[in-house]
Amino acid sequence: MRSRQEWRQARVIDIAHPTEDVRAVTFAVNGPLSAFDPGSHTNIRVMIHDAPAIRTYTVLPSAPGTLKIAVKLHPNSRGGSAWVWSLNPGDVTEMTTPENRFELSWRASHYLLIAGGIGVTPIFGMAPALISGGQSVRMIYGGRSQAQLAFRDELETLLGDDLELFVEEEGRSFDLDAEFSRLPLDAESYVCGPIGLLNASKAAWQRAGRPMSRLRFEVFGDSGHYGESAFWVEIPALRKTVEVRPDQSMLEALLQSGVDMVYDCQRGECGLCAVGVLDHEATIDHRDVFFSPTERAQNVRMCACVSRAPGGTISIDTGYQSAPL
User: Fold this and answer.
1) What's the rounded Cα separation, in Å, for the pair 137 and 130?
2) Domain coordinates in residue numbering, the chain
3) How far apart, in whole angstroms, are the C-alpha atoms of residue 46 and residue 266?
4) Res. 226 pLDDT band, cuts 50 70 90
5) Which CATH architecture has domain 7-96?
6) CB 265 within 8 A of CB 100
7) DSSP SS3 for 141
8) Which of 309, 321, 303 shows the shortest CA–CA distance to 242?
């Protein structure tokens, strides 16, 4: 189960490096391409270990007829970032026309944008859209070092004093409680970054007594706790055992093995792909933002699209009780 996708052939026409470990790739896309809102994403057909796969990336503002992405070369990558870093001008692939599940509401009196690391990509499109629309906006942006803050110069030029940078090597980190406490009552905050930042933002937003409908976030599915390694999934109801390779998600492995699954966002947000955990010998690495911290600690359900059980075996119930495949 997924949203309707329209695939287009795409050719690499430009490569740039906003930072040493971030690569921006611009594609010319065949056929008419409608304007897209900030926060939109595209799916890209990639090759990982000579096998086809699909990865999802935010699309950045770019010229008409083009789609631009920025990808960090991540040490825990399942192969997508390495593939993007292997591209050269003239290389051809396929991409979907953009869709948006992280759109601006345009209903608030003030917007607080929060970006952590490469989570800046959707926020980078939101900031100029809000400024050009005459909206009140502040942005806080954090990273490990000044050199790793992609698009910092462009954002400083655009936002001036309404941008504040927080760099770990300088001992500076977000004070989310203080940030949220001084927002107007009808303000909204948009957050993208590591799962730790998203969970901290949700907790601070709740402590501030603010409605959750006014906190929007997007996930890129890495907890940072583990490197990627293979694991095995047993489905007793289907009498199947499926290997999940380091370069694929549990959801991908189950689908490729013929296991029926319900899913949608593939980012750990909607919960549709959640499976019941019957038993596990490995520590479950929960990477979703759908379940509460209490629910994740109970280890009775996990989101198949992002969460993992590195190096071990887990037994699950997918919810389907049909005859064995």
Assistant:
1) 7
2) 7-96, 111-219, 231-317
3) 16
4) very low
5) Beta Barrel (2.40)
6) no
7) strand
8) 309
What confidence tier does 90 reach under pLDDT thresholds 50, 70, 90?
A: very high
Q: Kindly indicate whether the domain formed by 111-219 is annotated with CATH number 3.40.50.150.
A: no
Sorting pLDDT into bands at 50, 70 and 90, what band is 45? Answer: very high
Q: What is the pLDDT of residue 282?
A: 81
Handedness of CA 87, 88, 94, 99 (dihedral sign): positive
Query: What's the pLDDT score for residue 323?
Result: 42
Query: Which pairs with CB-CB distance under 8 Å and at least 24 residues apart come from 71-77?
Result: 71/22, 71/23, 71/25, 71/118, 72/21, 72/22, 72/117, 72/118, 72/150, 73/21, 73/22, 73/23, 74/118, 74/222, 75/227, 76/222, 76/224, 76/226, 76/227, 76/228, 77/228
- The DSSP line for 169-224 is GGT----HHHHHHTS-TT-EEEEEE-HHHHHHHHHHHHHTT--GGGEEEEE----S
Q: Distance between CA 1 and CA 303 in Å, rounded?
A: 15
Is residue 205 a contact partner of residue 212, using CB atoms and an 8 Å limit? yes
Give the residue, 273 or 323, on which the prediction is more confident: 273
Q: How far apart are CA 222 and CA 285, in angstroms?
A: 9
Model confidence band, residue 320 (pLDDT cutoffs 50, 70, 90): low
Q: Which CATH class is domain 231-317?
A: alpha beta
Q: Is residue 11 classed as helix, strand or coil in its secondary structure?
A: strand
Nearest to 135 by CA among 158, 153, 116: 158
Transcribe 18-76 into DSSP letters: EETTEEEEEEEESS------TT-EEEEEEEETTEEEEEEEEPBP--TTEEEEEEE--TT
Q: Are 63 and 31 in contact (CB under 8 A)?
A: no
Closest Cα to residue 285, out of 254, 319, 256, 246? 246
Q: Model pTM?
A: 0.81
The CA R_g of the chain, rounded to the nearest whole Å, is: 20
DSSP classification of residue 236: G
